[in-house]
């Protein structure tokens, strides 16, 4: 019969090896039963200590209990590792994205510029204007020449316009008017469209300027269109957008693509024309450039100016959003500060 020391060495080695070699939950359970079950080798060995001399009891008793604790800890670690491996294998079979936030999901918000653009577009759509879009990269013809902007005009200079390097006469559009040109080239009057979207200019990035901003422009071409039609359209647009009745006034201004051209001011909806910091105590807020479409623009797109006339207007979405939401710095729209964006 083997001595207690030899038997102990054999049992401890076999029990450790059985647990360490186990690679599945079934093998782990078999190793546990073999070592620590009611008739397991370590359990039987500990039971047999009662028949040993006192000295050997004192020696092998603590060793047996220590090995039992060691095996229990090792079994727990191996079970956890097997569970993780099984989960990983299961996840490989699914398309679940574990990087997504946990339920309940945080609700997103519409960006204030997007909200303003949608609201303006919705108002004009209800007035009969159709939504039209075009590319961000344009030709000089669509962006300048068809709009009666000659080669010597300052807007054609690289200090004002972002041209594409290595591309002949291609540039980032400086306004959304090229969409109007494309529409008039592809369709015959009568036309009533809006052209919202991003535009680009070589400009500073400060409280009131940005090299990338948004415009929304309107075009109406039909027979006998007048400044009165333009004034009524803008009055209805601004009244609906700001939620208060607006008066409109025109101040003479020059734009190559309209004649006559004007700056359109709206009565200040914040003070009722009594004078405030928004309107600079004048009672009026400048909101849009507008006018009657220049005959040369109509000729450039193949429309007879003797038969047809029209009006056009354009405005910066950022400016309107700043007035509506009380934002004083245009950079707040682009800095992605959630403390600001969550307010709208």
List the SSEs and their pairings.
Layout: H1 4-21, H2 25-36, H3 41-48, H4 54-92, H5 112-126, E1 130-131, E2 137-139, H6 140-143, E3 170-172, H7 177-186, E4 191-200, E5 212-222, H8 227-242, E6 248-252, E7 258-267, E8 284-293, H9 295-300, E9 309-316, H10 317-325, H11 338-341
Parallel strand pairs: 1-4
Antiparallel strand pairs: 2-3, 4-5, 5-9, 6-7, 7-8, 8-9
Helix pairs in contact: 1-2, 1-4, 2-4, 5-10
Please, could you describe this protein's structure?
Strand 6 (248-252) and strand 7 form a beta hairpin. Helix 1 runs antiparallel to helix 2 and helix 2 (25-36) runs antiparallel to helix 4 (54-92). The longest helix is centred in the first third of the chain and has 39 residues, at 54-92. This protein has helices at 4-21, 25-36, 41-48, 54-92, 112-126, 140-143, 177-186, 227-242, 295-300, 317-325, 338-341, and strands spanning 130-131, 137-139, 170-172, 191-200, 212-222, 248-252, 258-267, 284-293, 309-316. The protein is of the alpha+beta class. It has 2 domains: 4-92; 112-341, 2-Layer Sandwich (BirA Bifunctional Protein, domain 2), CATH 3.30.930.10. It contains 11 helices and 9 strands. 29% of the residues are buried.
């Amino acid at each position: 019969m083997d001595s207690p020391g030899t038997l102990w060495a054999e049992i401890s080695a076999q029990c450790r090896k059985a647990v360490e070699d186990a690679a599945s939950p079934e093998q782990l359970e078999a190793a546990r039963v073999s070592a620590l079950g009611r008739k397991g080798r370590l359990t039987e060995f500990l039971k047999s200590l009662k028949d040993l001399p006192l000295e050997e009891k004192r020696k092998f008793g603590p060793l047996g209990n220590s090995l039992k604790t060691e095996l229990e800890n090792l079994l727990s670690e191996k079970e956890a590792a097997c569970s993780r491996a099984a989960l990983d294998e299961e996840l490989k079979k699914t398309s679940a994205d574990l990087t997504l936030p946990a339920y309940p999901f945080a609700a997103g918000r519409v960006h204030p510029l997007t909200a303003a653009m949608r609201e303006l577009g919705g108002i004009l759509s209800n007035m009969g204007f159709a939504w039209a879009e075009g590319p961000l990269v344009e030709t000089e013809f669509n962006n300048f020449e068809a709009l009666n902007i000659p080669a010597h005009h300052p807007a054609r200079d690289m200090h004002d316009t972002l041209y594409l390097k290595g591309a002949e006469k291609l540039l980032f559009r400086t306004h959304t008017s090229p969409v109007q040109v494309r529409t008039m080239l592809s369709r015959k009057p009568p036309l009533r469209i809006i052209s919202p979207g991003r535009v680009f200019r070589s400009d500073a990035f400060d409280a009131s300027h940005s090299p990338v901003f948004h415009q929304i422009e309107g075009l109406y071409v039909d027979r006998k269109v007048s400044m009165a039609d333009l004034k009524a359209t803008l009055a209805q647009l601004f009244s609906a957008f700001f939620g208060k009745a607006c008066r409109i006034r025109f101040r003479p201004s020059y734009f190559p693509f309209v004649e006559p051209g004007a700056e359109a001011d709206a009565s200040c909806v914040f003070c009722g024309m009594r004078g405030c910091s928004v309107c600079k105590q004048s009672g009026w807020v400048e909101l849009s450039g507008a006018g009657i479409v220049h005959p040369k623009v109509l000729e450039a797109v193949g429309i007879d100016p003797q038969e047809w006339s029209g009006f056009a207007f354009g405005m910066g979405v950022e400016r309107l959003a700043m007035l509506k939401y009380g934002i004083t710095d245009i950079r707040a729209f682009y800095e992605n500060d959630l403390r600001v964006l969550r307010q709208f």
